[in-house]
TrEMBL record:
This is V/A-type H+-transporting ATPase subunit F. Coiled coil: none annotated. InterPro entries: ATPase_V1-cplx_f_g_su (IPR008218), ATPase_V1_fsu_sf (IPR036906). Keywords: Ion transport, Transport. Belongs to the V-ATPase F subunit family. It comes from the Bacteria. GO terms for molecular function: proton-transporting ATPase activity, rotational mechanism.
Length: 102
């Protein structure tokens, strides 16, 4: 089982490539949706990595995959400029989930 990256940033793609993860750089919604569908059809891919910006671009397709896809894990990754989530997001999630302040 292997991982595949769909990125909007060449630097992110190159960094993942150095780690042995194949990928593609895309910018248009139609290209991203087509690439996601190709990856879903590939039985060798077990984890789909997609940058947060592209996941937002086609959130309906990604959300559907996350909810209904049983054979593949879909992970949104930040690009080299950082994520769109707040820096204290993990701390806030833990606090809300179990009531422990870190």
């Amino acid at each position: 089982m292997r991982m595949y990256l769909i990125s909007d940033n060449i630097d992110t793609c190159m960094g993942m490539r150095l780690a042995g993860i194949e990928g593609v750089v895309l910018h248009e919604r139609e290209e991203v949706v087509a690439a996601v569908r190709r990856v879903v059809e590939d039985p060798a891919v077990g984890i789909l990595l997609i940058t947060e910006k592209l996941a937002e671009l086609c959130h309906d397709v990604i959300d559907d995959l996350k909810l209904n896809q049983k054979k593949m894990l879909v992970v949104e990754v930040p690009d080299r400029h950082g994520g769109s989530r707040a820096t204290d997001a993990l701390e806030r999630y833990v606090n809300e989930a179990i009531g422990v302040k870190m």
